[in-house]
């Protein structure tokens, strides 16, 4: 895991009240990077199965794989 990926994991593990986050939340983790660069980091982490997508149909969120509720039915 590279330094950028570790930053994402540290950010997600520091948040105890939420397990899923919007793309915009990750832009704040990397204020020196543009949206395209942040998207590449997140996509790489999805491909490495570190993160996973969660979608409500209209909204896509990101979370650590295996952490929190995983399906819409479980979310409520």
Query: What is the mean pLDDT?
Result: 88
- Proportion of β residues? 5-15%
Report the count of strand segments.
2
Arrangement of strands in the largest sheet: 1-2
Question: How would you sum up the major sheet?
Answer: 2 strands, antiparallel
Whole-angstrom Rg: 12 Å
Q: In terms of structural class, how would the helical and strand content be classed?
A: alpha+beta
Task: List the defining traits of the structure above.
single chain; 76 residues; alpha+beta; two-stranded antiparallel sheet; 47% helix; 13% strand; disordered C terminus
What does this structure look like?
The structure is a single chain. With 76 residues, the protein is α+β, with helices and mostly antiparallel strands. The chain is 47% helix and 13% strand. It contains four helices and two strands, in the order αααββα. It has helices at residues 3-14, 23-29, 35-47, 72-75, and strands at 51-55, 60-64. A two-stranded antiparallel ribbon has the order 1-2. The model is unreliable at 71-76 (pLDDT under 50).
Write the layout of secondary structure elements.
Blueprint: H1 3-14, H2 23-29, H3 35-47, E1 51-55, E2 60-64, H4 72-75
Antiparallel strand pairs: 1-2
Task: Compose a concise summary of this entry.
The chain is built from four helices and two strands; from the N terminus they run αααββα. By secondary structure, the chain is α+β, with helices and mostly antiparallel strands.
């Amino acid at each position: 895991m590279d330094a950028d990926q570790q930053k994402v994991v540290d950010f997600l593990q520091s948040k105890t009240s939420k397990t899923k986050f919007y793309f915009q939340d990750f832009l704040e983790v990397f204020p020196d990077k543009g949206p395209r660069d942040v998207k590449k980091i997140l996509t790489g982490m999805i491909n490495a199965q570190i993160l996973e997508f969660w979608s409500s149909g209209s909204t896509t969120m990101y979370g650590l794989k295996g952490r929190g509720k995983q399906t819409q039915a479980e979310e409520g």
